[in-house]
Amino acid sequence: MSVLQALEEKLSKMPAPMRLKDLIRNIRAARTAADERAVIQKELAIIRNSFREEDNTYRCRNVAKLLYINMLGYPAHFGQLECLKLIASPRFTDKRIGYLGATLLLDERHDVHLLITNSMKNDMEHNTQYIVGLSLSCFGSICSPEMSRDLAGEVEKLLKSSNAYVKKKAALCGVRIIRKVPELMEMFIPAVRSLLNDKNHGVQLTAVVLITEMCSRSPETLLHFRKVKEIVPNLVRILKNLIMSGYSPEHDVSGVSDPFLQVKILRLLRLLGKSDMDCSEAMNDILAQVATNTETSKNVGNAILYETVLCIMDIKSESGLRVLAINILGRFLLNNDKNIRYVALNTLLRVVQSDMNAVQRHRSTIVDCLKDPDVSIKRRAVELCFALINGNNVRSMVKELIFFLDKADPEFKAYTSSNIISTCERHAPNKRWHIDTMMRVLTGAGNYVPEDSVASLIQNISESSSLHGYIVQQLYKGLKEDISQQPLAQVASWCMGEYGDLLVGGAIEEEEPVQVSEDEALDLLESVIQSTSASQVTKEYVLQAILKISARFTHSAERIKKMAAPYTQSLDTELQQRSVEFTALVTSHDNMRPGLLERMPPMERKDEKQVNGDMNGESEDRKPMKPPSVQHESKGLLELLETPGAPMPNAGLSLSPTHNQKTEPSSSGGELLDLLDTLDLSGPAPAVPGFQPLAPMPSQPAPVNIMDALGTLEPMVAQPQADLLGGLVNNISGPSIPSVIAVENPTLKIEFAFERESPDKVAILLRATNPTLNPVTSFLFQAAVPKTFQLELMTPSGDLVPPNNSGAVTQTIKVTNPSRQAMRMRYKLAYTVLGNTSQEQGEVNNFPPAMFS
C-alpha angle 435/437/442, rounded to 5°? Predict the structure, then answer.
C-alpha cells in the first residue's frame, strides 16, 4: 500500500468537521458565557489540528467558521496563511472565502498581506468578472502604499474595461490608491474622463467619487478639471437627466431617482464652482431646478436639498439663488425631524454674515427654536440669535433672549448673559435701556454671570454719569430682594461705594423713588459681607464699598470704623490689607481721606469699538457656545507641546492664562517636555513669589483693577513720600523699554510692550491683531521661561481677534527675574480661522536689553 493510499484511508475514517450553521446553532444554544467559550475553544482546537494536517478538503469550511469566530471577538490570526492558500486555489468558492478572510484578518500593518500581491495581480487578469471583482474588493480594503505601487497599473487598465461591474470596482480602488500614494494620481486622470459618459449609474457614481478625491487632494488637478470643457457640462447633463427622468425601479429611492448619485455630483460641482465664475455660471440653472423640483416630504429629498444649499452658498452663485437656498433652510426649520432642524440652524450660522438680510426673514422661526426641548438645537439657535442682532432689532431680540435666559438650563446661562452684555454694548439704542437690560440680566442669570461681564458692566456704569442715581437705586432694590446672587452683589456694592451719596440724597427722578437712609444702606452691605453665601471676591467688593462710603456718609463714621475693624485680622490677605490701610488712613492721615476716596472718574477704554446708540455698526462674528468648564491648573509643559519628551529637571512654569495663577514647581519631572531644551535651566529654582492683592479681573480691552481704588491717585512729583503704614514708597525709575514684535505671520501679529513694576519685575503687555479679512477665533497664547524666571499669565481680554486690524486681543504677562539674566521665552500659539485650527510654536529672543537693567 502506498503512502498516498494510506493517507486517503486515514482521512476517510476521520469524521467530517462541523458545518458552519451547526457551529452557529451550538454557540447560540450556550446558556452562559463560559459555555460559549468552551464550545469555541473546542472548535478552534479542531480547526488548528486540521490546518496542521494540511486538510485541503475542508479548508474552506474551516476558514469560514474561523471568520465567524473572529466576528464574535475571539483571536483568529492563525488562519491568515490559510486564507492565502484559498486565494491561490483555482476554485471560485475557495477564492471567495479566501478573499473574505484576507479582508477581515489582514490589513496593511501585517507583512503577510504582501504575499497575496501576485495572486491578486493574476486574478485581476482573469477572464471571469466575479474573480476580478473579488480581487479588486480585497485590494480596496487592505492595500498598502507598496501594494498600491505594484498594482496601480492593473487597476488603471481595468478602468478602461468594457465591463461596468469591473469598472466601478476599479474606480473605487483608484480612490484607495490616491489616498495611499497621492503621486500616482496623474495616471488615472485620462481614464476617468470617459467614465462620466458611461450609462451605468454605478460607473458614473464611482467616477464622480474618484474625481472628487483628486480635486480635494490636489489644487493643480482641480484647476485641470475646471479647464476641461466637458466636465461641468457632463455633470450638469447627468444631474438634469436624473431630476427630469421618469420612474425607474432600478434607481428609485422613495420617489427620487438615484439620490446617491445626485448628492455626489452636487459635492463635485461645489468643489469645481468654488471661486470660479465660469463654472458657477454653468451650474446656476441646474441648481435652481434641483432646488425647486426635489420632493421634500421624504428624507431623501431633504438630503439632496441640503447638498444643493451647500453648493449654492459655496460657489459664486446669483443673489436670487442664494435667497432661494436660505428659504430652503427656513423650511427645514419647520420640519418635525430634529436632525433636519439642527442641520438648518448649523448651516444658517455659517452663512449669516454673508447673507444677513435673507436670514433675517426667518428670525421669528429661529427664535421659536429657543423653546425646543432638544439641547443641541437650543444651543445653535441661541448662537444664531446673537449673530442676527443689529441696531434695528436689538430691542425685540434681547427681549426674547432674556425670556430664554429666565428659563434656560444652567449650561446656557453663562454664555447667554455674557453675550447679551456684549451685544448691548455694541447696539444699545440709549443708555437707560442699556442699564435696565444689564440689571435684568444680573437678576435673571444670577451667579452664572461671568466675572468679565461684571467688570464690563461696572465700566459701562462709570461712563453713564447722568444715570448714576437711577442705577444705584435700582441696584439697591435688586440687592435688597436677593443678596445671594454674587454678580449682582458685586455690581451693587461697587455702585453704592461710588454713588452712595446719590442713593441717600433722594434727588432721583423716578416714578417710585425709594427713600434710603445711611443706616439702611450700611445694614444691607453688612448683611452681604456677613452672608455665608458671599464669595471672597464679593466680600472684597463690599469692604471696598464700605471704605469708600466713609467719604460719602457724614453721620456714620464710627459705625464704618467698627464694620471695618474685624477684618484687620482676617485670614484673607486682601481684606486684611484694605482694612489695615483704612484704619491707618483715618487715624494718621484723615486729611487725605476725602481725596483718596473720592469718586472714580469714568474708566477709559483703550480699544474703542462701537458706542451705545450707533445704529450703523456691524456685529462681529459670534463666538461658538462652549459648555461651562472649570479652569485646571497647568501640568508642567504637557499642554504646551503634544509630543512626549525626555524627563527634565523641575522648573517653575506657568502655561495656561488663568486668573492670578502663581507658578509653582512641578512635582513630576516626567511631565516636562523639551520646549525649553534650548534655554538655560541650570540655575537654582526661585522661591514662590510673595502675596499680591486679589482683584477682580475684567475681560475688557483695557483691564481695570476695580478693587484698587486707593491706587487711583498718582504722586504729583517723583520723590519718596510717606506710606500709609509708615514706610517709604520708592519711586521705581529706569530707562524706557521699547516695544518689540514677538510673532508675525500672514494671519496674526503679536506685539510686546513693557511696563517696569520693579527693578526685577516687568509687565509684558501683549497685543494681538489680525490683518486678514476673516476673524480669528479660539485665540490662545501660552508661554514658558527658564526656571530662574517666574512667569504669570493674566486672563486675556478675549479669544476673538477681529479682522482688518479693527480690534485686538490683549493680555498681561508678568515676568520676575531675580538673577537679572537675559530674557528668553518659548511660546505656543493656537487659533482658528474659518473652522481650520492652526498651532505654532517658537522662541522670542529679541527682548530689549534694557528690560531688566
Answer: 95
Q: Calculate the dihedral angle through the C-alpha atoms of 473, 475, 481, 487, rounding to the nearest 10 degrees.
A: -170
* Residue 728 DSSP code: E
640, 673 Cβ separation under 8 angstroms? yes
pLDDT tens-digit readout, 605-664: 655 443 333 333 334 444 555 544 433 333 333 333 333 333 333 333 333 343 343 333
Cα separation, 738 vs 758, whole angstroms: 17
Q: What is the pTM of this model?
A: 0.63
Cα dihedral value 341, 346, 351, 356, nearest 10: 60
DSSP symbol at 769:
E
3-state secondary structure of 186: helix
The C-alpha atoms of residue 441 and residue 613 are separated, in whole angstroms, by: 19
- Can you point out the beta strands (E) in 710-775? 721-722, 728-729, 740-744, 749-758, 761-769
SS3 of 543-561: the string is: HHHHHHHCCCCCCCHHHHH
| Residue 412 grid coordinates | 446656557
Cell 472718574 found at = 601
**DSSP string computed for 90-125:** SSHHHHHHHHHHHHHH--TTSGGGGGGHHHHHHHHT
| Rounded Cα distance, 213 and 268, in Å | 9
**Residues 184, 149 contacting (CB under 8 angstroms):** yes
d(CA 549, CA 499): 8
Alpha-carbon distance of 310 to 287, in angstroms, equals: 11
Fill in the DSSP letter of residue 853. -
What gap in Å lies between CA 542 and CA 524, rounded to an integer?
Answer: 10
Model pLDDT for residues 731-758, shown as the tens digit of each residue = 444 567 888 999 999 899 999 999 988 8
**pLDDT class for 695, splitting at 50, 70, 90?**
very low
- pLDDT of 658 reads 38
Inter-residue contact 74 to 44 (CB < 8 Å) = yes
- Integer Cα distance of 190 and 64 in angstroms: 41
375 residue type, one letter: V
Neighbour count for residue 16 (Cβ, 10 Å) = 9
